[in-house]
Amino acid sequence: MIRYLLFGTVLAVCMGCSRVAPPTAFGPVPSENQMRWQEMEYYAFVHFSLNTYTDQAWGYGNEDINLFNPTELDARQWARICKEAGMKGIIITAKHHSGFCLWPSEYTEYSVKNAPWKGGKGDVVRELAEACEEYGLKLGIYVSPWDRNHPDYGKPEYITYFRNQIKELLTDYGPIFEIWFDGANGGNGYYGGANENRKIDRTTYYDWQPTYKMIRELQPDIVIWNDGGDRADLRWVGTEGGFVGETNWSLLNGTGDVEWEMLHFGLETGDSWVPAEVNTSIRPEWFYHPIEDDKVKTVPQLMETYYNSIGRNGTLLLNFPIMPNGLIHENDEKAALEFAATVEASFAENLARNKHAIASDVRGKAKEFGADKALDNNKDTYWATDDSVTTASLTINFEKPTMVNRFLAQEYIRLGQRVKAFTVEALVDGNWKELAKGTTVGYKRFLRFPAVEATKVRFRITDSKSCPVISNIGIYNAPLSLNPPAIIRDQSGEITISTDDIGPYFYYTLDGSEPTPESKRYTGPVPTDGKVEVKAIAYDPSTHKSSPVTIGKFDICRKDWKIVGTDDHKAYAVLDGNTATTWRQSRDKKMPVDLVIDLGGLQNLNGFRYHPDQSMWEPGIITNYEFYVSDDNKKWKLADKGEFSNIKNNPVWQTRMFAPQKARFIKFRALKNTEGNDNIGYAEIDVVTD
Ligand code: FUL
């Protein structure tokens, strides 16, 4: 109350006319750099390194430099695709965890300068910087703090090395809009031949403050992303799945611990402006794996990501893995361009633009803060209320019934983030109807709802930290696209096809041909045996539109498989084809923990697949494993061992190939999990046969 008396709407006198003062900033506000970054909204990651050539997620640090030979590398292809896809910049993995440098760093031999590519004269970062300049894109740098190659990693000397590298990257390649410091540290690595485990204390080891200072001196317009140490300009959202919390405050506390919830939802009471960046890949993994060529996200999936990132007050950093030849795969390009076209079509016409609008309150009843300022397509003007008002509404009159299914609100965040809760209502056939509800708004907030024919739409702010300051409202009628169906094969071999959409038909093929509405119609589970490739579409009989195609590739049927050494019937969740169901081994077991399966007969094995536990809390996700095979469940032979590198942040299917083995039994041995305890869970286990 005192605050309102002191800072209540002020009538100021200017040059003989009275003028209503704008609201003063409330709480933390973005810096100019953060503001410029937020307005970029959508930009790309490219993941490319030596591990592109070894099919790994994280290089160990000893990969042979001679493998690096991207004979067709064309950074202009990357830039063209990003530009055509509506992106505003590209962040490149100049150095990933393996330590291999895509630029000829003066400080290490482990770089492009010793690779066969261009006779050691190549510089990927330079080529990208030039391509970005040509296409009008901004350049960003990912430089991994964890370095599995460097002999000094873990010692103070490494920090000097790391800073020298940052200095090179921020000095030699023109303006850099963002620098990205990933917090990953899996411990083990090559480390100049030591081949050992080196853990560091991420809160102290990197000594970030002098590094930040140097960065800001070298690149005053930069924003810093860091999930591993001192608070920076931007925050991670706690998942690589492509979504931030429905509630998303662009605030955190400047010091102190950050819990997962704070990353995901921000902190309403935070004392610093630390907005969210949603990073996700256009494929399941970050680096290129040929096995994922048919796993590129579809337009409906990318639209879902759009609404859950940009549509929730975040930015979207979408990754393209670069192929060993140095190009982006055509499937990824196609998906990104179709996604861009769908975004464009969805928001081509703002049905609220310049419509007549009435607000419940207008600041000092002044024209410059009127309702129409939220509909004038000018990001520098806004509708605001008097300081004491924290609930308010704005009603847009279409005059005639108008079909709508999307709502957009934007706060003028230069004055802080304020709105805590709102609803969207519509006048349909003379009655007010609630369409959707939201919590925070921030820079951009979209709500989706089933289409209605509305004569009026009302944006009702039901709670706000201070007076609302709304710079833009958008109302759209976006075309709908059907989700591609999910295809599951259970243990008996039965195929099930489904989606979350209500009402579509499904058509499928089992012979590799493209499904169309002329193909076989799905009416219920389809029995199959042996290896099968199922292709399916969802189809809307009323609009005659089809979804993108889903491809399900299944290896030998698992109907004769038995899980050995347990009578827990829940164990068969690992064979039910459903990655949402998990079997947890008994919590009494201590590492190593084995899962033994009898395949029911001899098989020609040359790989296995593991889908990790999907639980958010206390998951039992395996990071280090051994995989054995046997004829008789007595004599075991090691077929493969290794790590599932980035599995904690990106818990997707893991496929490992090994030299052919004829065997009837398999033993999947867990040596370590993501939490450093003994919890072990499996969503699915499968084999690859030749
Ligand atoms: C992760 C890394 O460990 C991944 O390899 C990838 O670079 C991703 C963007 O960040 O945490």
From TrEMBL:
Keyword field contains Glycosyltransferase: no
Protein name: alpha-L-fucosidase
Source organism of the structure: Sinomicrobium pectinilyticum
Start and end residues of each F5/8 type C domain: 340-478, 576-690
GO CC term (a single one): lysosome
PROSITE patterns assigned: FA58C_3 (PS50022)
Family indicated by similarity: Belongs to the glycosyl hydrolase 29 family.
Record SUPFAM superfamilies: (Trans)glycosidases, Galactose-binding domain-like
InterPro entries hit by this protein: FA58C, Galactose-bd-like_sf, GH, GH29D-like_dom, Glyco_hydro_29, Glyco_hydro_29_N
Signal peptide: 1-20
EC number: 3.2.1.51
Xref: PANTHER family: ALPHA-L-FUCOSIDASE, ALPHA-L-FUCOSIDASE-RELATED
Broadest EC class assigned to this enzyme: hydrolase
Coiled coil ranges: none
Keywords: Glycosidase, Hydrolase, Signal
Gene3D superfamilies noted in UniProt: Galactose-binding domain-like (2.60.120.260), Glycosidases (3.20.20.80)
Single biological process term from Gene Ontology: fucose metabolic process
Keyword flag Signal: yes
